[in-house]
Amino acid sequence: MNTDITAAVKPEYPVVDRNPPFTKTVANFNTLDYLRLFTITGVSVTVGYLSGIKPNIRGPSMVTGGLIGLMGGFMYAYQNSAGRLMGFFPNNDEVARYKK
């Protein structure tokens, strides 16, 4: 069974790295990726706090919501960064930076 998505879908933009490693993908985060990560985390902390008001467990609920939001925000930013490196999302900055 072939699990390589690039075998089924061809990139629309120039490919910078067909299989980017974790460190390169995280180093490729741009300002919008960090903004998305912190926005999702902040919203999750707020939702966690508000959902813990009624049973009076605001602190643990807020921390749990924040951790879930942090993980989700990181995965979303990572997906966008890797998608740009693999050529699935617009990547003009990455092409200019890595194709020298």
Automatic annotation (TrEMBL):
Transport in keyword set: no
Signal sequence interval, chain numbering: none
InterPro entries in the record: NADH-Q_oxidrdct_subunit, NADH-UbQ_OxRdtase_su21_N
The protein's name: Uncharacterized protein LOC105041061
Domain NADH-ubiquinone oxidoreductase 21kDa subunit N-terminal: residue ranges: 11-89
Keywords assigned: Membrane, Transmembrane, Transmembrane helix
Transmembrane feature ranges: 34-53, 59-78
Domain of life of the organism encoding this protein: Eukaryota
Coiled coil start-end: none
Keyword Membrane: yes
